[in-house]
Amino acid sequence: MIHESGTISVSTENIFPIIKKWLYSEKDIFVRELVSNSSDAISKLKKLVSIGEAIIEKDDEYYIRVKLDKEKRIIQITDNGIGMTSDEIKKYINQVAFSGVKDFVEKYKDKTDEGQIIGHFGLGFYSAFMVSEKVEIDSLSYVQGSKAVKWVSESGIEYSMEGSDKVERGTTITLYISEDSKEFLDSFMLRGVLEKYFSFLPYQVFFEDVNKEEEETDKPKSDDKSEETPKPINDTEPLWLKNPRDCTDEEYKEFYKKTFFDFTDPLFWIHLNVDYPFKLRGILYFPKLRNEIDNFEGQIKLFYNQVFVADNIKEVIPEFLMLLKGVIDCPDLPLNVSRSFLQNDGYVARISNHITKKVGDKLKALFDTERENYYKYWDDINPFVKFGCIKERKFYDRVKDILIFKTINNEYTTLKDYLEKYKEKHENKVFYVSDENQQAQYIRLFKDNELEAVVLSSPIDNHFIQFIEMNESGVKFQRIDSDLSESMKDSEGKIDEQSLGEISKKLEGLFGQNLGDEKLKIRVEPLKTKSLPGMILLSEESRRMIEMSKMYGGALNIGDMYKEEETLILNSNNNLIKSILEIEDKEGKKDDLKLICEHIYDLSKMSHKPLEPEEMTKFIERSNSLLASFALKD
After folding, report:
1. pLDDT of residue 609
2. Model-level pTM?
3. ∠ CA(51), CA(56), CA(58), 5° rounding?
């Protein structure tokens, strides 16, 4: 009969405070460690069977069972894997688990609990003591003639070993949960932790709540035998492990909805299937973003041999891909290392670059072979693509030729095609609209003159515009209300210089006197469109500087500096503007002239931006006065 007790020689008391600090934000990690060990034990046995080193019954199915007994404060984890002999327990539990412990302590003693370590595999069995006041191991090796052995420790430092009454091959870990970890005795919580980490483990995982089973023994038994068959909590063959050729669209959509609890179909997806120079499997989904990039959070689940590690590990997954949803399983990743190490690891960089390449290739394939679908997806995916270009130069280089822009005529164009088509009219400028409703007057003016502008209305577009200007020589973006194209002017109806000077002088005086805005610039131009009396232009540079000032809460004090760049354009081909010259010198018409000029100015501003509350109040009062004057007219 085996009977042994002793003290592990390594100073293990030094490691527990560090582990507690390390696991502070994810205390449930002990579940992952112990069940992962069970999975490894089964994998080892399968390997021995495959090479003829072990023999088991043909119908022997591998399993992992997690049993909860809340009343006894016990959690048990059982597998039918390789098992251990007493000598192996001494080697793997009493010694190997603590080989290098001193190095571990020295390396991580100053680390915080803020996710410094990406993975925790390797710490393994001793994580059990973070939640337990006592831990037992009962194990029976696969080796013929082996005797079962029990290992018990109440501290992780002192242990005892003796014979066990276990008769089935494999290992059972029994945790006697401590008072400060009793939350794990909640059935709903424990099952949730198992599903979090092991929804796709390659071996069936069963969960049993002993107390719940006892409660249901008093209920009438169902005649349906299928209800009595326990069901695993996991899918042992996740979709990402299958050959893409064998997967249907419905399977991809079903997997997406089940994994991410999103009941809206994804737009499309990328199935990653790499064996060299590293192993990588996964599926990346493009969800519907609807331009809400500031409020949208994607979710990329990182797995290690079908065991969940963490969400959104930016050291492995390019930051811009965090807007997507997906799963990535990479068993070649170096775990148990600091994130700063991953950031500088060339191997991890190659994985990240490969993922970026595959995403770019997928977008190019859609553009080349499914152009109409690509156009259809663009409203949803363009914030992601633009963000990716800004964040990853390699991604931009891969997709820059397939970046498209929606136009004010509901068509799609690449930057190259737009510049080529309008090079004579636009002179390498790209006119754009940021608010189709607010800038409707300018859009109509463009359409009337057979000009084109693109729609850039998402929150990321301000940054994207500047990015393109920096990376495409000579290209300049200008909002539709920032400049007046020569194509809009009517050369035949141009007013003479003397009249232009008179109008400018009179209007400058009127607006300067009545609005207190001496910085306002006024320019008279003969426009082809005769129905428009006036419009406001604000140079692209000025507007960007003003917006930058607002972005920083006015701290830059540059808004007022550029206000004088706002220009009121008066259309000399408009009848109302022409009439100003005729009535200005008429007796008794000065008040009317003032109202008309103020109204033209406000109407021009309303097409450019919303009026301030005080300005709107005056506009309404003035409108009422003008209507009353018109109604009382003889």
Report:
1. 85
2. 0.81
3. 100
- Token pair for 98: 């603590």
Torsion of CA 21, 25, 31, 37, to 10 degrees: -60
State whether 130 and 278 are in the same domain: no
206 within some domain: yes
Q: How far is CA 598 from the centre of its chain?
A: 48
Q: Do 468 and 606 belong to one domain?
A: no
For the chain, give the percent of residues with pLDDT over 90.
Answer: 41
Q: What is the pLDDT of residues 548-572, one digit of tens each?
A: 777 666 555 554 555 557 888 888 8
**Residues in CB range of 342: below 8 A, 6 or more apart:** 118, 313, 315, 316, 334, 348
> Do residues 8 and 157 both lie within one domain?
yes
Taking only the tens place, the pLDDT of each residue in 520-554 is 788 888 888 888 899 999 888 888 887 777 766 65
CA dihedral 82, 86, 88, 89 (to 10 degrees): 100
Q: Residues near 307 by Cβ (< 8 Å), separated by ≥ 6?
A: 32, 36, 39, 121, 197, 198, 201
- Asked if the structure places residue 389 within a domain, the reply is no
14 touches 105 (CB < 8 A): yes
Model pLDDT for residues 460-481, shown as the tens digit of each residue: 898 999 999 999 988 999 999 9
State the DSSP string of 365-401. Answer: HHHHH-HHHHHHHHHHHHHHHHHHHHH-HHHHHHHGG
Distance in angstroms between the alpha carbons of the first and the last residue of the chain? 122
- Burial of 241: CB neighbours in 10 Å, binned 0-12, 13-18, 19+: middle
- The C-alpha atoms of residue 415 and residue 407 are separated, in whole angstroms, by 11
What is the C-alpha to C-alpha distance for residues 68 and 427, in angstroms, rounded to an integer? 74
pLDDT confidence of residue 117: 46
- Count how many domains the chain has: 4
Residue 23 above 50 pLDDT? no
> What DSSP character marks residue 123?
T
**Rounded distance between C-alpha atoms, residue 493 and residue 524, angstroms:** 12
CB 154 within 8 A of CB 103: no
Torsion sign over Cα 100, 103, 107, 111: positive
CATH number at residue 189: 3.30.565.10
Q: Where are the beta strands (DSSP E) in 393-506?
A: 404-406, 412-414, 429-433, 454-455, 476-479
For 203, the domain range is 3-214
Q: What angle do CA 273, 275, 277 make, to 5 degrees?
A: 125
Least confident of 165-179, 420-434, 588-602: 588-602
